[in-house]
Amino acid sequence: MEILLISVAFGAFSSKFEVFIEQAKAKARVIEHEAEVALKDAQLKAKFECDREFKNARKEYENMLFKIEKKEKELNEHLENELRLIKAQKEEISENNRKIA
C-alpha cells in the first residue's frame, strides 16, 4: 500500500514536473521569438539609420564639391583677368620702350 501511495505520489509529481518543464520550454520559445523579433527590428532600424546617414553624407559631399568647383571657377576667372592686365601692362611698357628708343 505504501508503495502504491509512493508510486501515485511520484507519478503525480512526475506529471506536474513534466507540465512545468513544458511550460518552461514554451516560455523559452516565446522569449527566443521575442528576442529574434527585437533583433530584426534593431537591424532594420540600424540599416535605416545607416542609409539616412549615407544619403546625408552624399548630399553634403555633393554640396561641398559644388562649392569647391564654384570657387575654382572664380579663381580661374580672377587669374585670367590678372593675366590679361599683366599682358596689357607688358604691351604698354613695350610700346613706351619703343617710343623712347
Written overview of the protein:
The chain has one helix at 2-100. The chain has 101 residues and is mainly alpha-helical. The longest helix is centred in the middle third of the chain and has 99 residues, at 2-100. The N and C termini lie far apart (145 Å).
Q: Which assembly state applies to the chains in this document?
A: single chain
Dominant shape: rod-shaped
Detail the poorly predicted runs: none
Tally the helices. Answer: 1
State the helicity in percent bands: over 70%
Roughly what fraction of the amino acids lie in strands?
under 5%
What's the N-to-C terminus distance? 145 Å
C-alpha Rg (nearest Å): 43 Å
How many strands in all? 0
| Biggest sheet architecture | none
Provide the succession of SSEs: H
Mean residue pLDDT? 91
Given helix and strand content, the structural type is mainly alpha
Which helices and strands occur, and which strands form pairs?
Blueprint (H helix, E strand, L loop, with lengths): L1 H99 L1
